[in-house]
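Predict structure. Chain length: 288.
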Amino acid sequence: MKKLGFIGVGAMGRGMCDNLIKKSGCPMTVYDLSLENRKYFEGKATIAKSSLEVFKNSDIVFLSLPDSKTVATVTDEFLNDGVRGKVVIDLSTSYPMATKQLYERFKEEGGVFIDAPLLGGPADTAAGNAPCMISGDKDEIDKVMDLIACYASPIDFVGEAGNAHTIKLAMNFTGLTYAVTAAQMFPLMEKMGIDTKNLFQIMNDGPFGNWMFDFYGKKIVNRDYRMDFALSLGLKDMTYVKKLYEEYNVPAFVLDGVLDLLRTSLKDGKGSKDFSQCAATMYEYLRI
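Prediction complete.
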């Protein structure tokens, strides 16, 4: 029986880890910087005092971390300790170029590094049906697919290492840009005297209707900024996309406007609040 480890059991990680414990039958060791997040798993898993302790006690380690910088810090400890025979699966939304480098470093040292980010939110991971893209060495991925299936469905293999993180950024770029467009459009329409709730319904029932428009459009017109996905994380993802354009020395055009609004919202103290708070910034500019 494989020994599992999970680092980062916050909003997204909690559901994945919970499902792994319930469905895999494998012993689990967890760590999170938050005491509250660690306490949730008391009696369910071994609570480690550090990320490295999780790594030492596990054959397969899952990472659900806020950014590539944190992933790099944690995996550097693993590499220094020795990764031969170990598998690390990065569930985070990480920078693809950094993922490719980690894959090569792990392979050189006899370890396995897989990128497997998810779509959806905490409710989806808790329900065990969050869509997942996964990439890396196919033979190694096949060995862990039963574990991934504990919390994800469907699961799409998308090729070589880094591809899953690249595709996740493509999806976030498209979806969050759509959300930011709505966050700019609806406040302007309200300023001009349009009934935006009615406008939302007309658009949502017509060709503009999709999951992203429905999800963020309702929040924006109702000014219901309940917490689902932090604005700071959305800004991080869009910054990663900007870096990809810079890799090829080409302008990002539309993305630059998106980044301007998100950075302005961050300066206004909205970083830890929901992504839809970028609409609140527009309402404030329009004084409504």
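Summary: The chain is about 55% helix and 10% strand.
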